[in-house]
Amino acid sequence: MISLEQLVRKNIWSLAPYSSARDEYSGKEAHVFLDANENPYNAPYNRYPDPLQRELKAVLSRVKGVPENMIFLGNGSDEAIDLAYRVFCRPGIDNVVAIAPTYGMYQVCADINDIEYRQVLLDENYQMHADQLLAACDGNTKLIWICSPNNPTGNSFDRDEILKVLNSFQGIVVVDEAYIDFSQQLSLRQELPTHPNLIILQTMSKAWGSAAIRLGMAFASADIINIYNKVKYPYNVNLLTQQQGLEALKDPFEVDKWVKTLLGERTRLMQAFVELPICEKVYKTDANFFLARMTDAQAIYDYLVDKGIIVRNRTRVQLCNNCLRITIGTRTENNELLSALRQY
Ligand SMILES: *Cc1c(COP(=O)(O)O)cnc(C)c1O
Read out DSSP for 165-229? Predict the structure, then answer.
């Protein structure tokens, strides 16, 4: 990796961040707070929340085995995705490379930030090839996006293939592990100490059952996290989210139970899809959803909508012609989907 100073935009590297009242004084001993122009009434909502979410990070650090200074928390993973562009990529000059098909937000944020978005198509088995990603890079490539398990294809990529990208690329590699809790693969978290160019994204939105609170995480070197903290909105994670995040993290065993149940249902649902005459192929998955190639995805999608059952129609996505993406629901929901499809 070339030095972080060379990778980060000059204006960001030299940025003097906003200093809030809570940054200047964050000790616990004081009891009269007349520094932030807050209203003294309506506790606890009258006070600005901790800009660095220290309590939440302390718990997450134990759950994830990542030091607190290597954790960034944001308003969903989407904030961490957008920040990668704003920190590293010069609008109109730099570019990024990503696998395709993949999660749509990488391209939307590239477009918003006026960054060229280079796509490298997966092969027909939805596998990625490190050499092809590296070949798409040039001197202005700042980021490579890898989503594993990948959305919408569902599969994980070979760890050695990802490591090859990490070891050969001179810029930042972002690995989105939104679905890692459902996966057979290990997280790349343990690679962080040896790979200063790695940013790992995770989220409370999927296995942790907390999409509504908007809490996403990035794990990276302390140097990268410091820059992220400088660029983010000062109070990017509100008090309610911090409280509810702590609440959710109290019970990792509950999450394990959900995951086991969902994986069991996934197996059952996929087997049932294989038997459907209107289903041509069910793709291997490592996430809480799977991709199924149907005889006529659009017509089946419309038929399901009519019955009040919503799946994701991916037929217009590259390599996903006639594919529906099915999220695993409760046993009752899955049965309702199956019986509707059997009557199609
Ligand atoms: C669902 C999903 C996320 C989660 O985004 P949040 O903003 O944290 O809810 C991130 N990445 C991928 C690939 C996803 O599918």
Answer: HHHH-SSEEEEE-TTGGG-SSPPGGGGGGG-TTEEEEEESSSTTS-GGG--EEEE--HHHHHHHH
pLDDT, tens digit, for every residue of 33-73? 999 999 999 999 999 999 999 999 999 999 999 999 999 99
Is the C-alpha dihedral spanning 50, 179, 331, 261 positive or negative?
negative
| Residue tagged 């935009």 (tokens) | 9
At 324, give phi and psi (nearest 5°).
-110, 140
Cβ of residue 151 lying under 6 Å from some atom of ligand 1: yes
CB 76 less than 6 A from any atom of ligand 1: yes
DSSP tally for the chain: helices H, then strands E? 13, 11
Residue closest by Cα to atom 2 of ligand 1: 178
pTM, to two decimals: 0.96
Q: Which residues contact 59 (CB under 8 A, 6 or more apart)?
A: 246, 249
Q: What is the identity of the amino acid at 241?
A: T
Let me know: does 105 contact 84? Beta carbons within 8 Å: no
- Other beta carbons less than 10 A from residue 65's beta carbon: 12
Q: What is the rounded distance in angstroms from the CA atom of residue 89 to the CA atom of residue 97?
A: 12
Q: Judge whether 162 and 148 are in contact, CB under 8 Å.
A: yes
Task: Please check whether residue 70 is in contact with residue 222, taking contact to mean a CB–CB distance below 8 angstroms.
Answer: yes
CA 319 to CA 119: how far, in whole Å?
A: 13
Tell whether ligand 1 has an atom less than 6 A from the beta carbon of residue 203.
Answer: yes
